[in-house]
Each structure stands twice: as C-alpha cells, then as structure tokens.
Amino acid sequence: MTTHAPCETALAMSRAATPAGTGRPAPSVARDVVALATRAPSLHNTQPWRWRIVSDDVLELFAAHDRQLRVLDPRGRLMTLSLGAALHHAMVAARAVDRAVTVERFPVGGPPDLVARLHLGEVVHAGPAERIALSSLVARRTDRRPFSSWELPEDRLRHLGELAASYGVTTVRLDARQRVAVERLVAAAAGHHDGSPLTAGELAEWWGGDREGAGVPGALVPDRLLDPLGIGRCEGGALEVDAPDDCASQHTAVLALCHPDDSPDGWLATGEAMSAVWLEAVSEGLGMVPVSLPVEVAEVRVRLREDVLGLLAHPQLLLQVGWPHTASARLAPSPRRPLDDVIVP
C-alpha cells in the first residue's frame, strides 16, 4: 500500500492544529480544505468551481459556469461530475485534518449555482485511513501514458466497485467484446469532434501547448498513441512515452460508472464516487485515467448505454485502471488556479 508523505500534507496538517481546549477548527482550516479540494480532477482541467468561506466551519461550493464547456457539455453533466470530485476531495481533506464534516447537497433555498454546503464539526482525530486518503489526494496524477502488462488482482477491482456502489453508482467492468465496441465508440466520438469546428475550437482553448493555471499542457500529453482508448487525448503532445510498442493495454480494466439518475443529483454522486475510487486506487499503487469521449457525444453515449452495456442506468464516465509502467517517471501535477481566484467573498 502506498504511504506517501509529501510536504504539502505535513503543511496542511500543521496549519490545521486545533486551538488548545476549544475543540473548534483553527481559522486556517477552511482555507486549507479548499486548497486541497482544488487538486480534484476535472474535465480537461477546467476546474469549474468556486468556493466561499462563510465562516471558520462552513464552506460553500459553487459551479463556475463561465468555465463550463458550452459546446462539449451543454447540460453541465461533466462539469457536475468534476464538482462532485471537488466535494469529495474537500471531505477527505477535512477528515484528514481532524474535523468531522457534514454536507448539504444542492441546499434548498440557495442560489442556483450553489452545489454543496460543508459544515466542519468538532474534532475527530484522523486515523490511518484518513491520512492515507489525504496522501493519495496529494500524490494523484492524471497519467495518460501506457500502463504496464501486469495483471490486475480481481479482488482489488471488486473492492473499487463496492466503493463506488456506496455512492449509489453501478460499476460495470467491460469484457473483451465490450472493450472492442468502446474502442470503436471512442474513434466515432473523436471523429465527431474533429468534424465540428465549434467543438474543436472549444477543445483548443483547454488542450495542448503551454498552460498556466488550468487546461492540459502539452507537456502532460503523450507523444504517441499505444492504446485505442486514448485516441484524441493521449497523442500528439510533448510527453515522451518510454514504453515498448507492445505495452499490453489489454491487461488494464475499463470500468463504466453508471447512475440511474441522469440529473445533477446523479452526476454529483458519480463525481464523488470517481474521486473515492481514484484515491483508493492510488493508495494501492494503481494508476487510473478517465475516458470521457464516449460520453461527450450524445448519440455515442446512447449507443454505449443501449448497444454495449445494455443497462437501464446511464453511463456517466469510463475509467481505465492499471499498473503504472515501471519505466515511467513521476509526472508533475497539472496546473492549478491561484487560491485567491478560487475563493470568492
């Protein structure tokens, strides 16, 4: 099991020390929680969130609609998944710095862009599980390079599925036939994007080249494609792939995260589940990368649901899971917006 101890973790914990005898959060705790929550993954690293520190023990998470991909994600579904990941990251951070936390999701009577309100409660000292989760949060990367050919233990995949189920999310592991079908859907969705000047233009605003604060820099995009699931997202960048051409992608698992409620409630829950599964995978030494192309195009998503999965539940996102290749050097983190840009009055 991975036991990272990055300096950022120690800093957050030291700043979050509880005032002696008060049992109440220190003034810096709320800001520390937000800082760690901003590490959450988001569609094309758009970081579509804003946070408001109401008091030392109340935080509010808002959707930043000006960062929504209006062409690619007109309903805001993938934006809301990203917000769910940020919410889960905040909960992990709060518990790791010794705070109980309760959440109101889509609070009644709040403004339309208010997604969640977090209440930091009394001191509840974190145990090993909470510390490991926070270390995984800091260590997590979106690594688009090929995975290794090591076999994945079935018990670990079952555990990830059970974890997702605790958020009301059904996890379907694709078999060989389904995987081939999904590879075709990835290619179809990529072709749709390439043929749409509006979509291509929107993607260009967030993808490749030099990036500061948000988006996916070319330095984090592989220079060549070895896995059909990475079409359009894992090629053409500046990140050298130091792996053999026969790097066996078939030894990875592809998990479809599905929810019966195709509304903001279901989208948010799926985002929370994605974050929980990802951090658990990191703690076990596994790598994970989202595959969103098949759910970005409406008609392709319908084909995924009806022709490939055959489910009543709605596919929200695919996750590819595998062992990182031993030849792969550790990646730098994706760029993040300044904290003062994220926190609003």
From TrEMBL:
Its Gene Ontology molecular function terms? Answer: oxidoreductase activity
PANTHER family the UniProt entry points to? NAD(P)H NITROREDUCTASE RV3131-RELATED, NADPH NITROREDUCTASE
Q: Which InterPro entries match?
A: Nitroreductase-like, Nitroreductase/BluB
**Which NCBIfam families does the entry link to?**
Rv3131_FMN_oxido
Q: What is this protein called?
A: Unannotated protein
